[in-house]
Amino acid sequence: MTFEEAVAAPGTKFQVTGSRVKDGKRTVMIYALDENGSKQLGFTHVPEAEHGAMVADLTRRGLAIAETDWYCDFIWVVNPESVTVYNSTQRVFWARENSATLEDNTLIRKSEFVKVISFQEDYVYRGVKALLRSGEEAPLVTEAAASASDPTYNRNNLIMETGWALKIAAAIATWAGADYRNLI
User: Fold this and answer.
1) Cα–Cα separations (whole angstroms), residue 86 to 93, 127, 173
2) Measured distance CA(184)–CA(83) in Å, rounded
3) Beta-carbon neighbour count of residue 21 at 10 Å?
4) DSSP type of residue 147
5) What is the rounded distance in angstroms from the CA atom of residue 61 to the CA atom of residue 133?
6) Burial (Cβ within 10 Å: 0-12, 13-18, ≥19) of residue 30
7) CA distance linking residue 91 with residue 89, whole number of Å
8) Per-position pLDDT tens, the chain of length 184
9) 3-state SS class at 165
10) Per-position DSSP letters for 2-16, written without gaps between them
11) How far apart are CA 24 and CA 2, in angstroms?
């Protein structure tokens, strides 16, 4: 599907812009995001000088902005009322109004959040968890990265591959009115 066909396709779509500039161009992608996950519909490479105008045009055309990080499978949408996170197969986290729903449909009331934490364990297991009023820790958005099993994998690799966790954790903490802590 061409980029314009993706923009014109039926359904709710989102624009996702890469942060990397290569050969003076940035990638702009169109995604469909729903409870069945994320699906890239199309993309184009835009000269950096035209990027702002394209984002504004797509926004006027009804395509809200979503975010991603090249080193993960997650796409997230943040606005003042909600935070929603998708992977390629499902919606994995959805915070809105007074509660958050996890990928297993566990419901956590907003008032239960004390702290939101970006974390990693042994470089492999990483993500976002919440400390709840009960003292429990609830995993919110996590992944196990096979890349970390490479013997040459180091802290620099970990930091590059976990930027998504910091961004998502900060957005959830803001939504919940909770403290944020980075343990990566």
Assistant:
1) 7, 13, 18
2) 21
3) 12
4) G
5) 42
6) buried
7) 7
8) 899 999 999 888 999 987 788 999 999 999 999 889 999 999 999 999 999 999 999 999 999 999 998 888 999 999 989 999 999 999 999 999 999 999 999 999 999 999 999 999 999 999 999 999 999 999 999 999 999 989 999 999 999 999 999 999 999 999 999 999 999 9
9) helix
10) -HHHHHHSSS-EEEE
11) 21
* Intra-chain end-to-end CA distance of the chain, in Å: 39
Question: Which residue type occupies 31?
Answer: Y
65/70 Cα distance (integer angstroms): 16
CA distance 91 to 82: 13
Burial (0-12, 13-18, 19+ Cβ within 10 Å), 142: middle
What predicted TM-score, i.e. pTM, was given to this entire model? 0.91
Beta-carbon count within 10 A of 146 CB: 8
How many Cα neighbours within 13 Å face the side chain of 141?
Answer: 31
**Which residue in 86, 92, 95 sits closest to 67, CA to CA?**
86
Of 127, 92, 94, 99, which Cα lies nearest the Cα of 113? 99
The torsion region of residue 15 among left (phi > 0), alpha (psi -120 to 50) and beta comes to: beta
